[in-house]
Design a protein that fits this description.
CATH class of the largest domain: Mainly Alpha
CATH architecture of the largest domain: Up-down Bundle
Structural class: mainly alpha
Strand content: under 5%
Distance between the termini: 83 Å
Largest sheet: none
Number of strands: 0
Helix content: over 70%
């Protein structure tokens, strides 16, 4: 029995060490992505390709850790960093009109993190529409959100509360962007243009 407990303790200590390292990298990805999203939304982010490359390298390191120890898949906080990274890439991809950029990680990042990041990006795009107050940009954002919403509705998400919540968030973002577009058109009518 002693040898079993020794083995368990060693395995547990090794897993905890790997989990801590993975969580640290995930936290760096999460914070870096959040910071870059904030700056991007407020049009203060420069060197976007460098920021993407830096975060991508961290994401690849994180995915390598998870591949080497599949038990890390069960550490849900790791997905938080990946989800935030997906959100950042989706926003940049939308703003640059480069869907290939977004497609680059579809095979490497777990689907729940992908869905969460894509859904969360719609909220940031609504914020961008609010700052620009431009109906052409707003229409483009609305069309994108409609597309995301329709794709989410095609998924069997009833079993998962988080994904169901993300679907509701996208729907709320769709309503917000429609309200923004209505306000823009109303202002134009009031100004007589």
């Amino acid at each position: 029995m002693e040898s079993i407990w020794r083995t368990i303790k060693v395995q547990y200590a090794n897993f905890e060490e790997e989990r801590t390292r993975a969580l640290d990298v995930s936290g760096e990805v999460l914070r870096g992505s959040k910071r870059n999203i904030h700056l991007l939304v407020h049009e203060r982010l420069s060197n976007v390709p460098d920021k993407l490359r830096e975060l991508k390298n961290k994401v690849l390191a994180l995915l390598k850790m998870v591949k080497q120890n599949p038990l890390l898949h069960h550490v849900s906080a790791i997905d938080d960093g990946l989800e935030e990274y997906v959100e950042f890439v989706m926003i940049v991809s939308f703003l640059e009109g480069n869907p290939k950029m977004a497609a680059s990680f579809v095979k490497t990042i777990e689907s729940e993190a992908l869905i969460g990041g894509i859904a969360d990006a719609t909220g940031e795009l609504v914020r961008i529409a609010m700052t620009k107050m431009n109906d052409k940009e707003g229409e483009k954002i609305r069309d994108y959100i409609v597309s995301v919403y329709h794709h989410l509705l095609d998924l069997p998400i009833s079993r998962n509360g988080k994904l169901r919540s993300k679907t509701h968030d996208v729907h709320r973002n769709l309503l917000k962007i429609e309200e923004i577009l209505f306000d823009i058109k109303l202002r134009r009518l009031e100004q007589g243009t």
